[in-house]
Design goal:
This protein is mostly helical. Helices cover 42% and strands 4% of the residues. The chain has two domains: 60 residues, no CATH class; 105 residues, Cytochrome Bc1 Complex, Chain D, domain 2, CATH 1.10.760.10. It contains seven helices and two strands. Helix 3 packs across helix 7 and helix 5 crosses helix 7.
Length: 173
């Protein structure tokens, strides 16, 4: 039924078809994408502007005063948010986990405990854990205090940070 010549033609036809598809894909890349960018990703060569698209609209980020948000903070919601922190911190004075104890942390000196090995990055940016300093640190720990050992990525919502700080104010001195 199949002789050598028929088998050779069949394999050649499959390889030829594959080659046509590969060349077609390569040509499409050249047509629809510009040269590679510096990070190896392709940028779109031609963009069709659409009225009312997201690219046309400038996103206005409204700067919110933290004191105003802090005035309306909820201690109960902050207690719920505390669950994320307690895997590394404790609320008992002098009892440390991976991070230092947070008992009475609001308005206390930074790096207060002598028996905890602080990274040193915190003392370089602040002297006291004011609510504003805690807000900045909780938003982006590594951005606020570069070199900190805290591995937390940060809390994005300002209301959540205010609620957590309001709860921490009720714990301790």
């Amino acid at each position: 039924m199949f002789d050598t010549m028929t088998m050779t033609k069949t394999v050649g036809a499959l390889c030829g078809s594959l080659l046509v598809f590969l060349l077609g894909g390569w040509m499409a890349e050249l047509i629809y994408h510009s040269a590679e960018s510096h990070d190896g990703e392709h940028a779109q060569a031609y963009v069709i502007e659409v009225a009312g698209s997201e690219a046309d609209e400038e996103e206005v980020v409204e700067e919110v005063d933290f004191a105003v948000v802090m005035a309306s903070a909820s201690v109960e919601d902050g207690e719920t948010l505390w669950r994320n922190c307690r895997s590394c911190h404790a609320l008992e004075a002098g009892k440390h986990g991976t991070g230092p104890a947070l008992y009475g942390v609001v308005n206390r000196p930074v790096a207060q405990y002598d028996d905890f090995n602080y990274s040193g990055a915190l003392a370089a940016v602040a002297e006291v854990w004011t609510p504003e300093n805690l807000n900045g640190f909780l938003e982006d720990p590594k951005g606020w205090a570069p070199g900190t050992a805290m591995g937390y990525n940060g809390m994005r919502k300002i209301e959540d940070r205010a609620n957590l700080i309001a709860y921490l104010e009720t714990v301790g001195d």
